[in-house]
């Protein structure tokens, strides 16, 4: 009897350390702009620049990604003020709009008011975040940040004073970066690192599940792995660099033929990029192999009727094959169909939400590796 009680209490203790944040699959900026009939004009003015946040310039960077749709709610301050944020494994800072911001993007988002929090402190340091099209500027502060039931005291974060215009079309208020401190602006300790340092999670890892179609079910789990979201084995891949969640990619193949990343390349698993992004020539090769043609905005369009007959695309990571069917890499809307392969102009590849929807992703910071398993 005693033995079972010990097992039970261990299970209860473990369950308490399992912190889940439900992610909402909301309307994308593209959808909002299409509804207003201004998408084409917007895309001409703001070409997609997915690599903006990967330029190491000493300032934290982000991209104007019109197709991001997953965000979750966190709170900051005492008493708590709530904000929706994109959980972004491709950047490392947390920032939200503030009451000191008068940009258009701050008018239609929730704004943090420091005067209403008893635990708030200014850090007296400016913060600048570069975007593909403009930037966010503001100041660093610290306060209690609550994420999925975990309260992190004295977390340093950014409060915006000005924001790039394209952020007005983004559903989320701000960004919560989950990459490493090595790339954090002002060397701020990221939220997850604070959780690990203060032993607020049972394991130094977090995992991400993105649902394919429905608005419900997507989640980030801090400190654990939710086995109900995947099937089969977890494949562990060591990081090649602990800056972003960066790994070695061996090749991209279609029907056994190498079509991209010949001889190997570097890839980042990034929840904060909606597409799979690679060097221009590689991506145009993949798009032509799957039968897509590129329109004036650089988007690869396909006939929606052709999806059934389009080939799978296989990404081999550290000797392990991860296959994406056409049903997963083609997005369908009332405006037509396009592939989820975007040009980045850099040798670095980004395996974004198109990839993560197919493979449950586990980010283990202590052993510096990524686990991938087939999503359910």
Automatic annotation (TrEMBL):
The keyword Cell inner membrane does not apply. One of its GO terms (molecular function) is aspartic-type endopeptidase activity. Residues 70-373 form the Peptidase A1 domain. SUPFAM superfamilies: Acid proteases. Its EC number is 3.4.23.1. Keywords: Aspartyl protease, Digestion, Disulfide bond, Hydrolase, Protease, Signal. GO terms for biological process: digestion; proteolysis. It holds the Pfam family Asp. Belongs to the peptidase A1 family. Shows particularly broad specificity; although bonds involving phenylalanine and leucine are preferred, many others are also cleaved to some extent. This is pepsin A. The lineage of its organism: Eukaryota, Metazoa, Chordata, Craniata, Vertebrata.
């Amino acid at each position: 009897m005693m033995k079972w009680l010990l097992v039970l209490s261990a299970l209860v203790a473990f369950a308490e350390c399992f912190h889940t944040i439900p992610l909402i699959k909301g309307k994308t900026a593209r959808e909002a702009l299409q509804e207003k009939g201004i998408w084409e004009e917007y895309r001409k003015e703001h070409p997609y620049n997915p690599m903006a946040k990967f330029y190491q310039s000493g300032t934290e960077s982000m991209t104007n990604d019109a197709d991001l749709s997953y965000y979750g709610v966190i709170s900051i301050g005492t008493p708590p003020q709530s904000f929706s944020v994109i959980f972004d494994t491709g950047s490392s800072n947390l920032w939200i709009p503030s009451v000191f911001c008068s940009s258009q993007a701050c008018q239609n988002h929730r704004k943090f008011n420091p005067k209403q929090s008893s635990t708030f402190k200014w850090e007296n340091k400016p913060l600048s975040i570069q975007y593909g099209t403009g930037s966010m500027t503001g100041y660093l502060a610290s306060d209690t940040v609550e994420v999925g039931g975990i309260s992190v005291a004295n977390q340093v974060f950014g409060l915006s004073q000005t924001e790039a215009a394209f952020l007005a079309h983004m559903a989320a208020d701000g960004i919560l970066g989950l990459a490493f401190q090595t790339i954090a602006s002002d060397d701020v300790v990221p939220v997850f690192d604070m959780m690990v340092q203060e032993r607020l999670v049972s394991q130094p890892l977090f995992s991400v599940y993105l649902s394919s179609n429905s608005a419900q079910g997507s989640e980030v789990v801090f400190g654990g792995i939710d086995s109900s979201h995947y099937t089969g084995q977890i494949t562990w891949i060591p990081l090649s660099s602990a800056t972003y969640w960066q790994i070695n990619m061996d090749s991209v193949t279609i029907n056994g033929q190498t079509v991209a990343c010949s001889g190997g390349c570097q890839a980042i698993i990034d929840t904060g990029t909606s597409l799979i992004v690679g060097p221009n020539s590689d991506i145009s090769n993949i798009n032509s192999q799957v039968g897509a043609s590129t329109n004036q905005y650089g988007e690869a369009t396909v006939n929606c009727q052709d999806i059934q007959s389009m080939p799978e695309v296989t990404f081999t990571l550290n000797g392990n094959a991860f296959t994406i069917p056409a049903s997963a890499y083609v997005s369908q809307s009332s405006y037509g169909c396009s592939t989820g392969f975007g040009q980045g102009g850099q040798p670095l590849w980004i395996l974004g939400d198109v990839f993560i929807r197919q493979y449950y992703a586990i980010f283990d910071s202590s052993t510096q590796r990524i686990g991938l398993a087939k999503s359910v």
